[in-house]
C-alpha cells in the first residue's frame, strides 16, 4: 500500500514555518525586552504606543521649557531684589536729606544717588543665561534702558527701548506662562512695567534722577514733598513685580512636578503595552522549541515509514 505524502508534507511545512516564526519572535522579545517592535506585531498596540510616544515627546518639550523658564525667573528675581534694595536706599537718603542744610552733605548724598542710578541701570539691563535681556518685553536682543548724560557724566534721562509685549511658553497641556517682563508700561493696560508703570505712577529712573538733581541744588523741600512719595510708589511697584515672579516660580515648580510624574506614567504605560514578560516569554520559547523539535522528529519518522511502505 502506497501512502501519499503530499498533503502531509504541506501541513508539516506550514506547521514548521509557523513554529519557526513564533520562535524567532520570542527570541527577539528575549533580546530586546519588547513584544511589539513592528506594526505587524500588534497593529492596535503599536498605534497606542505611537500615541504614547507623541505624548512623551510633548512632555519632554514641556520639561525643557520649564527648566529654561525657571532659570530666567530666578535671574529676574535676583535683579528685582537688587532694584528693590536700590529703591530702599534712595528712600533712606531722601528721608535723611529732608532736614539737612549742609551743602557738603547734600552733595555726598547726590553722589550716592548717582551711584544708585548706575546700579539700577545694570540691574534693569540684566541678561539671562542665553544672553537675552530680561526686562525689554519681547524685544530681548537689545539693551532695554539707555542713559543720557551731561558733561559731568550725570545721568539726565533714561530711555526705554523695549516694548510691553510678552510671549507665552507651553509648560503643560494647554498651560502657558511668560517669563518676559516689560521694564516700562505707560499704555495703561497689559503687564505691569517693572521700573515704570503709568497705572501706579511708578517711574524709578525719573524719580532717582529728580532726587539727585534736587540734592545737588539743595532743594530739600521738593525732596520731602515729592521724591519720598514717588520713591514709595516705585518700591511698591517693584514689590508687586517680585510677588508676580514668586507666583511664576511656584507655577513652574508645580508644572515641573506634574511633568515628572507624567513622564513616569507614560514610561510605565509604554512598557506595559510593548514590553515583554521575560518569564512568560522564556517559557513560551521553550515550549515552541520543543514543539518544533517534535515536529521535525515526527516528520522524519513518518517520511521514512512512507518510503518503506512505498518500497514494499
Walk me through what this model shows.
With 312 residues, this protein is mainly alpha-helical. The chain folds into 2 domains: 58-267, f41 fragment of flagellin, N-terminal domain (Up-down Bundle), CATH 1.20.1330; 279-312. Helix content is 66%, strand content 8%. The chain contains 6 helices and 7 strands, in the order αααβββββββααα. It has helices at residues 6-32, 43-97, 103-124, 204-217, 220-274, 278-311; strands spanning 145-149, 155-160, 169-172, 175-177, 184-185, 196-197, 202-203. The strands form 3 sheets. The protein has a 3-stranded mixed beta sheet. It has a two-stranded antiparallel ribbon with strand order 1-2. The protein has a two-stranded antiparallel ribbon with strand order 3-4. The radius of gyration is 38 Å and the shape is rod-shaped. The mean pLDDT is 84.
Summarize the structure in short:
The chain is mainly α and 312 residues long.
Amino acid at each position: 500500500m502506497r501512502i501519499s505524502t503530499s498533503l502531509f508534507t504541506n501541513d508539516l511545512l506550514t506547521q514548521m514555518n509557523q513554529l519557526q516564526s513564533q520562535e524567532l519572535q520570542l527570541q527577539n522579545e528575549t533580546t530586546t525586552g519588547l513584544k511589539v517592535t513592528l506594526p505587524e506585531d500588534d497593529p492596535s498596540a503599536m498605534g497606542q504606543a505611537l500615541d504614547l510616544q507623541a505624548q512623551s515627546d510633548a512632555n519632554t518639550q514641556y520639561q525643557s521649557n520649564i527648566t529654561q523658564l525657571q532659570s530666567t525667573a530666578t535671574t529676574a528675581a535676583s535683579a528685582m531684589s537688587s532694584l528693590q534694595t536700590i529703591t530702599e536706599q534712595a528712600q533712606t537718603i531722601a528721608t535723611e536729606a529732608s532736614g539737612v542744610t549742609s551743602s557738603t552733605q547734600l552733595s555726598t548724598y547726590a553722589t550716592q544717588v548717582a551711584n544708585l542710578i548706575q546700579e539700577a541701570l545694570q540691574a534693569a539691563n540684566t541678561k539671562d543665561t542665553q544672553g537675552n535681556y530680561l526686562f525689554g518685553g519681547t524685544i530681548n536682543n537689545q539693551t532695554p534702558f539707555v542713559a543720557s548724560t551731561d558733561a559731568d557724566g550725570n545721568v539726565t534721562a533714561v530711555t526705554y527701548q523695549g516694548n510691553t509685549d510678552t510671549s507665552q511658553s507651553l509648560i503643560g497641556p494647554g498651560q502657558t506662562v511668560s517669563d518676559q517682563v516689560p521694564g516700562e508700561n505707560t499704555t495703561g493696560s497689559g503687564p505691569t512695567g517693572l521700573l515704570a508703570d503709568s497705572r501706579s505712577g511708578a517711574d524709578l529712573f525719573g524719580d532717582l534722577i529728580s532726587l539727585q538733581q534736587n540734592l545737588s541744588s539743595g532743594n530739600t523741600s521738593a525732596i520731602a514733598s515729592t521724591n519720598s512719595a514717588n520713591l514709595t510708589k516705585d518700591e511698591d511697584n517693584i514689590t508687586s513685580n517680585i510677588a508676580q515672579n514668586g507666583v511664576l516660580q511656584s507655577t513652574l515648580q508645580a508644572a515641573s512636578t506634574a511633568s515628572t510624574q507624567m513622564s513616569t506614567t507614560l514610561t510605565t504605560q509604554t512598557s506595559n503595552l510593548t514590553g515583554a514578560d521575560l518569564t512568560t516569554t522564556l517559557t513560551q520559547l521553550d515550549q515552541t522549541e520543543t514543539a518544533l523539535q517534535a515536529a521535525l522528529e515526527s516528520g522524519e519518522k513518518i517520511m521514512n515509514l512512507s518510503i518503506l511502505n512505498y518500497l514494499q
